[in-house]
Amino acid sequence: MANVFLQFLLDVENGDLDGVKRNIQNGIDLETRDEDQQTALILAARCNHFECVKVLIEAHADVNAEDVGQFTPLMWASYQGHTRVVEYLLSCGTNVNAQDEHGISSLSWASGRNHVDIVALLLAAGASPNLYDKNNTSPLIWASRRGYTRIVDLLLKHDANINNIGMKNMTALLAATKGGHAETALRLLENRTIDIKIQDKDGETPLSHACAQGLTDVVVELVQRHAYVNTVDKNGNPVLFSAVKGGKEDCVAILLENHADINAIGAENKTAIWWAVERGRLNVVKYLLQYNPDVEVAGGPDDDTPLLLATKRKRVAIVYELIKYGARLSSVDQFGDNSLYIALRNHSRDIADILLSNPRYSKYLYRPNKRGETPYKIDANLQKSILTTIFGQRTLNLNDDSILGYDLYSSALAEILSEPSLRTPITVTLANGTSALDVTVKPTTIKKLSKKKRRRQRRDTLPNTKPVSTSELTYQLLQSDYFLDINPRILQRLINIIAMTGRLLRANQVLFSWKRLGCWSYLVEQWPYRISWIVIYYEDHGQDYAEDTELKTLYNKIKPFIPITNDPLLELDRSGRKFELCIEKSEPVLNVTDLKQFLPCTCNLDPYLNKLIRESAAYFYMNNIDENGFVHGDPSRFFSPRDSTQ
After folding, report:
1. Exposed/middle/buried for residue 193 (C-beta within 10 Å: 0-12, 13-18, 19+)
2. Residue 28, Cβ neighbours under 10 Å: how many?
3. Is the peptide bond prior to 588 cis by the omega test (within 30 degrees of 0)?
4. pLDDT computed for residue 458 by the predictor
5. In this structure, are residues 166 and 135 in contact, taking their beta carbons and an 8 Å threshold?
6. What is the C-alpha separation between 617 and 635, in angstroms, rounded?
7. What is the mean pLDDT of residues 285-301?
8. What phi, psi does 299 have (nearest 5°)?
């Protein structure tokens, strides 16, 4: 009997209609199953033998029989795309909403495999578009994941739930945008009830997925529908990062034009400009630089700034753009190496040439890193010197007006004085071939210089207080790390402030350094609120600190008490992190002596800030909290009656 049944199944599988009819006439049991629990009808539907299906059903085979995976004949036909078989089974009253062991219905299988005609037949027969599987995934999500827009359209016309949340917190819109299916996403967005701000299990939104895939039209539609442009995922990465990684400049532009935070910091302290450099997106780097990003934020596993990262990745064009923008060569990695060290080690002549095109950066040729190496020492150990090639091969181009903003004459002179072979003496002669040393040894010159020195000594009883010109003051300021990131307008204001303060100090016969005064004035101008806190703390506790105590020491004492949110006075200051970097790492490092010396004559610090701070709750807690965290005194005056009742 077993052999008879096996032959029967073989006839069904091969579509042998005569053999099937003969077995039916011989009275074979149509519900006998094979090892996979398949009946003859299931096998015929799966193999698309329409006539066999018809004969078996006419012989009263069970149209809702299930195999080992709970697949019915309708499910197999829907899965395989056998339209005629599906249509006939539906006409015979099969269960259109049956589900397999995973809860997947015939409609879900057809939707996920792009069988448009079968989806239409199932919906017309009453299949539910909102029948979810065990992961709560609907037919609409299945179709959206693969970008089957025609099926999505059919399901929406039959009232499919557009906001159903399936596996991994995924909706139809999230699935479409994540898969890069712009047409499908736009069809979904035609429904005004769709949730465009939902996040999946990783915290990604439809906007972040669309940006990552470069779906410009979808991004435009989402932004016009007020999707959040600064939403962050579970790792703290904002939407802008997705656009930058995707490399589509249009998507980046749309986000920035709609107030995306250019300086947002994500996982591992990475920024948008950092990611653009990491992915080598030159066009994106150029666009981001138009929005004045902070290019000195160090991020990634090695704490690299964008310039350091671009140098390590040997991205020459990006290095050029960053240097032109004003990225600081002084930034170093965890080994104390700046970009020049790295470029020389990597034999990157083009990058080294770009870095040294600014004459000011020639000073880094002599600076040692943590291992005591200088760029010259690294270059000397190379089989072929890079520095000699750079300085020796650069030619004078009379058609170039400038090199990265520096005039050609000063660049040429800097190259002469930075002669890479270090063969001394280095002599710059006059037009007639006479050097400065030849001139100074003449008796007449010595006599004139001695006379001039005596006259200068008689004239100035207060050394180092002579007037300085604006150009001299500007030059001195630009030698300091403090002033590398300010624009010309702010620099002009600072020069006026410094000049005014300097006059007041000289009028009071105070000896001072113009450079230290410039740094003090810069801190006061950029961070008046935090400087006022330092001033107040020193006024209250000055007896506890020596003259050489650095300002960062005072700031670290008061930092826990300075409000970080909900204080309108914070808007007076720039970034708090930049302030900490300035007082800690920039040269010169200011101390208590500078504070005592400059404060009485400081003209750009409002004393009313001191009054507001002393009347604040933060100041009260700073002076009344003990080591155990217990507050002495009554802080109730800082709270409204409404707050106290709550």
Report:
1. exposed
2. 18
3. yes
4. 52
5. yes
6. 7
7. 94
8. -145, 180
